[in-house]
Design a protein that fits this description.
Blueprint lengths: L3 E5 L3 E5 L13 E5 L1 H11 L4 E4 L1 E2 L3 H12 L8 E2 L6 E5 L8 E5 L15 H4 L3 E7 L1 H5 L1 H16 L3 E5 L13 H9 L4 E4 L3 H6 L15 H14 L5 E9 L5 E8 L4 E3 L3 E3 L8 H15 L4 H15 L11 H8 L10
Parallel strand pairs: 1-4, 1-9, 2-7, 5-6, 9-10, 10-11, 11-12
Antiparallel strand pairs: 2-3, 7-8, 12-13, 13-14, 13-15
Helix pairs in contact: 1-9, 9-10, 10-11
């Protein structure tokens, strides 16, 4: 039996403009919940794995509504703590064609932004767990969130859990006094599995591919093998380094793939053409959820684990909201090459 996976971060109220409207046009917003590590936990629970999400929520109706949303998707919530005054919010304007999507954060002084080390009993949290996942979003929120995340990482490592990180650089969040370049190296040094995209390694660690131009809309794996090698050199303890490969042809049409380096071999996933994107927010989180599932279930088959991650994330682009609400059977169906979208009856 696979032991539980624990994720730690912020869940937010998501307010999205309907039907590709601009913020200046919207008279209403579609409300849902989401956030990097919560999205990963929902993916894993949806795939049938035991998954706990740890955060700090305000003791009010909105905080409890977020809690209910997690419970609805079978995510474990017993280690969530309450305190502070508010839930973070993010506003989403969904782009179209050549107009990119836009995100505006309203998460200053949220409950988790005011978290401090010692508030969460990590040894209790990690009892019966085998994996801990965090992202670079959490230490960007505040010094307290960064210190608490490092506390969790050290506790997980001490207890022998696999530790994974999605680098997830968010320039608009790093405002509390230190930069990602100052904070992230120590945290990432404890990680067994490191995930990033074509920008994260450069923005956080100054690591660039030997040659690549993402502005063309085509991102290929050979250019990013050098990024994997440089990350492995910087973080020799990492067992697997993965780069997601997104080519943005337009806001509605992306290519999507990934590359995995296990220290000895490179593995390349198929390239998907996602031609009518419904919602790309949470795409990287759905990749991470798929990757963790694959690594835990496919008996050391890195190629199959990578293929599952890319296919799961490909399907996420067809679903409104942050959460990836697809089944293992649906992902494996796409992995086998059936992307026809024919009606199932």
């Amino acid at each position: 039996m696979i032991k539980k996976v624990v994720t730690f971060g912020e869940i937010m109220l998501r307010l999205a403009t309907p039907e590709h409207q601009r913020f200046s046009q919207a008279v209403s917003y579609c409300a849902s919940y989401g956030g990097g590590e919560a999205n990963v936990a929902v993916s894993l629970a949806n795939f049938g794995l035991p998954a706990d999400f740890v955060t700090r929520l305000p003791e009010n109706d909105i905080g409890h509504a977020a809690l209910m949303e997690l419970k609805k998707h079978s995510v474990g919530t017993s280690n969530i703590i309450f305190g502070g005054d508010r839930l973070g919010i993010y506003f989403l304007e969904t782009g179209s064609v050549s107009r990119p999507s836009r995100v505006v954060y309203d998460r200053a002084h949220s409950s988790i932004a005011e978290i401090l080390p010692g508030m969460i009993a990590w040894e209790k949290v990690f009892s019966g767990a085998s994996w801990f996942h965090w992202t670079g979003i959490t230490p960007a929120i505040s010094k307290g969130a960064a210190d608490t995340c490092l506390e969790a990482i050290k506790a997980a490592k001490k207890l022998g859990l696999t530790v994974s990180c999605d680098l997830n650089f968010r320039k608009n969040l790093w405002k509390w006094g230190k930069t990602a370049t100052e904070v992230m190296p120590e945290m990432v040094s404890y990680c067994d599995v490191i995930l990033g995209n074509e920008e994260d390694a450069e923005k956080v660690f100054g690591i660039r591919p030997d040659s690549a131009d993402v502005s063309t809309g085509m991102v290929g794996s050979p250019e990013f093998e050098s990024v994997c090698l440089k990350l492995k050199e910087k973080f020799p303890g990492a067992k697997k380094i993965i780069i997601t490969l997104r080519g943005s042809i337009s806001a509605d049409h992306n290519t999507w793939s990934g590359i995995l380096f296990n220290g000895e071999r490179f593995f390349n996933a198929p390239v998907y053409q996602i031609t009518h994107i419904v919602d790309r927010v949470g795409g990287g989180d759905s990749f991470m959820g798929g990757l963790i599932f694959g690594l835990l279930n496919y008996d050391g088959d890195d190629q199959k684990a990578l293929n599952f991650a890319v296919a799961a994330s490909c399907l996420k682009h067809t679903i409104h909201g942050d959460f990836n609400l697809v089944s293992v059977a649906e992902v494996e169906h796409l992995m086998k090459g059936d992307s026809s979208g024919r009606v199932i009856r």
